[in-house]
Write a structure and sequence with these properties.
EC 3.1.1.-, monoacylglycerol lipase activity
Length: 405
């Protein structure tokens, strides 16, 4: 169809630009294998509990295959995450003193349940400036991540941010950090930046050094404004590495999604008919677009459109090459009430989010309808838990191949 062709062509043009730059950076050696593996985690504040629940399930399946020490970071070439997804990415890939991941996936939700109410105090929001001062969030991230830098993560990560001074997205990645000192920031700084949601948390400033010793300045806010769903960011990075010859995969070429496994986890989206309507918003003042009934409509609109467009583009690419089963997007687009919020951290709401994650596992695998943007169940592919179990086996087999090599 025309839409599919246009979207695939847009991605091809993006990759063509990357090809022009393919020989400008030194190569980063990758482990030999047969399948490229990608994990992506959306932004969404306290709704990070939803992908946290799903990641715990996936890791448990990997442990059934490979033993209790199996960790998510062992199985993915790239893990990308924005905002709360960036925090989850960091926790899964930051090394502890024994060079193991800082968090097991089963402990991610424990972090949210314990720390969420302190990050977003329900009775202590600011009347001026950002809704929350972010001091505790910054302190706990610095305490947990210490002096770990981007080039030290246990697998390649990509964490989007947005520079409010330059008005451009800034992507922090392990591969960039290994060749550019100015991008080798503290992981804590990157996490603080990617979670600095406008109106909710203050922007974050920090500095790094270029190779010649000059200072690079960053004035960053939440990566949600650049890539709330960072799946395409991660795939493009992978294709860039393939173009540069940094992946030694057998018979794999750029755009060959038949040899790529992608797991993309959403943090939920509001049920369309329950959110806004034209007759209501046409009467809004500018302040209503910034804050309305506990939500920030502008952020909702930008993040929802970003998520849907990325999913449509990625789905188009995989479907065009007959590899739709290699791309698994798990998302609930029917959230209502408090579960749509990014900062309601009552025990009741957090438990509801965990329940949504568990129920998502038992829902049928769904794919986006490229024409309507709606998620539709796929006949014959079972539940999301079935799909994750299948992916776990494929990931385990791939890891065994790499260990053998």
């Amino acid at each position: 169809m025309k839409t599919t062709g246009f979207l695939v062509m847009a991605l091809l043009l993006e990759l063509a630009t990357a090809l022009e730059c393919a020989n400008k950076l030194p190569a980063i050696q990758k482990t030999k294998g047969k399948t490229v593996t990608v994990l992506s985690i959306d932004g969404g504040g306290i709704r990070g509990i939803i992908p946290g629940t799903i990641l715990a399930f996936l890791e448990s399946k990997l442990q059934e295959l490979d033993g209790p020490n199996a960790r998510i970071a062992d199985y993915f070439d790239v893990i990308s995450g924005t905002s709360t997804g960036g925090l989850l990415t960091a926790f899964l890939t930051a090394p502890d003193k024994d060079n193991h991941p800082l968090f097991a996936a089963k402990d991610l939700n424990k972090f949210y349940f314990e720390q969420g109410p302190i990050f977003f105090p329900q009775d202590n929001a600011s009347a001026t400036g950002p809704k929350y001062d972010g001091k505790y969030l910054r302190s706990i991230l610095r305490e947990l991540l210490g002096n770990i830098t981007m080039n030290q993560t246990l697998t390649d990560v990509i964490i989007p941010t947005f520079d409010i001074n330059l008005l451009q997205p800034i992507m922090f990645s392990t591969s960039d950090a290994k060749v550019k000192s100015s991008k080798n920031a503290l992981l804590a700084d990157v996490c603080i930046a990617t979670s600095a949601a406008p109106t909710f948390l203050p922007a974050h400033y920090f500095e790094t050094k270029y190779e010649d010793g000059k200072t690079r300045k960053f004035n960053l806010i939440d990566g949600v404004v650049a890539a709330n769903n960072p799946t395409q960011v991660a795939i493009t990075q992978i294709f860039n590495d393939i173009l540069k010859g940094n992946f030694e995969f057998v018979d794999i070429k750029p755009m060959d999604t038949t040899k790529m496994l992608v797991v993309s986890l959403g943090t939920g989206a509001a049920m369309l008919e329950e959110k806004y309507n034209a007759s209501t918003v046409s009467q809004w003042s500018p302040i209503n677009w910034i804050f309305d009934n506990g939500s920030t409509p502008l952020i909702d609109v930008y993040s929802a459109s970003s998520n849907d467009m990325v999913d449509i583009q990625v789905s188009s690419l995989f479907q065009a090459l007959g590899a739709e089963k290699n791309y698994l997007r798990i998302q609930d687009d029917n959230l209502i009430g408090n579960t749509t919020s990014v900062d309601i951290t009552t025990a009741r709401n957090m438990e509801a989010l965990a329940d949504i994650g568990n129920k998502l596992l038992e829902k049928s695998v769904a794919r986006v309808n490229i024409d309507t943007g709606a998620f539709e169940p796929v006949v014959g592919e079972g539940t999301n838990s079935d799909a994750l179990t299948r992916f776990a086996k494929l990931l385990s087999d791939e890891r065994k191949i790499r260990i053998a090599n």
